Automatic annotation (TrEMBL):
Protein name, entry field: Aspartate/tyrosine/aromatic aminotransferase
Lineage summary: Archaea, Methanobacteriati, Methanobacteriota, Stenosarchaea group, Halobacteria
Record bears the keyword Lyase: no
Protein species of origin: Natrarchaeobaculum sulfurireducens
Keyword annotations of the record: Aminotransferase, Pyridoxal phosphate, Transferase
Coiled coil start-end: none
Requisite cofactors: pyridoxal 5'-phosphate
Family: Belongs to the class-I pyridoxal-phosphate-dependent aminotransferase family.
Complex formation: Homodimer.
InterPro entries, sorted: Aminotransferase_I/II_large, AspAT/PAT-like, PyrdxlP-dep_Trfase, PyrdxlP-dep_Trfase_major
Length: 373
């Protein structure tokens, strides 16, 4: 009798989904990582015009259209002063597929993948699907990842370490000094640094920096996407950037598992990247205002809250029973241990929802917090 693969049996459905299913129909959802803004009009038009021009009926190149990869390349030049050859880019079906490609192409059975804990739920699951060994490491008190912690965790069996800034679930942003250290570690230990930069444009203080800027070898691979920056989660368009030799290996996984990213989504992404950026700036400004509102509300309720500098998440320390008490009042939050063992005692709240809903949710949270204390 055919049984199920061990690497799949050790992966469970996300704990985030369990929270959603326990919530009432009218609950205020602070659990989902999805901007509540519309996709910019010029990005939508890019897809519509491509469809009407009969550009989307056939496969594109496995790597994606040349024009999209040129737009991605130009973005790295504009934002970071980096020269990225369009041949060193693969357009993927969202950032999730990009993460999958990196790990599948670089991790042999049993090899270690170091990642932050608490951290994005996919890092652990995708490591197991690659038949690798997850190696979560704790964060600093401000919820950033300490390069020294990563370096201490590296062994001869380490294949990859993951950096995520701005981070999900914490909203933490790594400093330039940290990013320089991550690049040094990748270079000196000859270990791949997977830099997950899906939230790169959603930064409130300072600037996002990438270890790709500072690496002296090709040991940094970057994953990003249009999903959060341009409110295009449903379009499923991301990308991976790396040296040509690494891209060619990841392409072998991509071409058999996916063939190519959706053609309409590629044209929408090209338009998003090359068109007006004011919608992004307006969205980030709105997220910053919401962040401040949520921080004030949580602190007024008596919770300790590290200040997030990016993304659209906040991760307060919470007492036992707090998440259940909040859910009973029809506000969806995600228990911190859904993101790793070190997330216990925290909860993740997303403020990617409207201000009025946030105000109502904070009133309910205040009541729940007082009840849980």
């Amino acid at each position: 009798m055919t049984e199920f693969a061990r690497r799949v049996e050790q992966v469970s459905i996300s704990g985030i989904r369990e929270v959603f299913e326990a919530a009432g129909e009218d609950a205020i959802n602070l659990g989902i990582g999805q901007p509540d803004f519309p996709t910019p009009a010029h990005a939508r038009r890019g897809a519509i015009e491509a469809i009407e021009s009969d550009l989307t009926d056939a496969y594109t190149s496995n790597k994606g259209t040349r024009s999209l990869r040129e737009a991605i390349s130009a973005t790295y030049d504009r934002e970071y002063g980096l020269e990225v050859d369009p041949e060193d880019v693969i357009a993927t079906s969202g950032g999730s597929e990009a993460l999958h490609l990196v790990l599948q192409a670089h991790v042999d059975p049993g090899q270690e993948v170091i990642f932050p804990d608490p951290g994005f739920v996919s890092y652990d699951a995708l490591t197991k699907i690659a038949d690798g060994t997850p190696k979560p490491v704790p964060l600093r008190d401000d919820l950033t990842l300490d390069p020294a912690t990563v370096e201490e965790a590296i062994t001869d069996d380490t294949a990859v370490f993951v950096v995520n800034s701005p981070a999900n679930p914490t909203g933490a942003v790594q400093s330039e000094a940290d990013m320089r250290e991550f690049a040094r570690i990748a270079d000196e230990h000859d270990v791949l640094c997977l830099s997950d930069e899906v939230y790169e444009r959603i930064v409130f203080e300072g600037d996002h920096r990438s270890p790709l800027e500072f690496a002296e070898t090709d040991n940094v691979v970057v994953v990003s996407a249009c999903s959060k920056t341009y409110s295009m989660t449903g379009w499923r368009l991301g990308w991976v950037v790396g040296s040509n030799r690494r891209i060619e290996r990841m392409l072998r996984v991509h071409q058999y598992g996916q063939a190519c990213a959706s053609a309409p989504a590629q044209y929408a992404a090209e338009a998003a990247l090359t068109g007006p950026q004011e919608p992004v700036e307006e969205m980030v400004a709105a997220f910053e205002r919401r962040r401040d509102l949520v921080l004030d509300g949580l602190e007024d309720a008596g919770l300790e809250v590290p200040t997030p500098e990016g993304a659209f998440y906040v991760m307060p320390k919470v007492p036992d029973g707090w998440c259940e008490a909040v859910l009973e009042r029809d506000v969806v939050v995600v228990p911190g241990d859904a993101f790793g063992a070190n997330g216990a005692g925290y909860a993740r709240l997303s403020y990617a929802t409207g201000t009025e809903d946030l105000k109502e949710a904070l009133e309910r949270i205040d009541a729940a917090t007082r009840a849980a204390q």
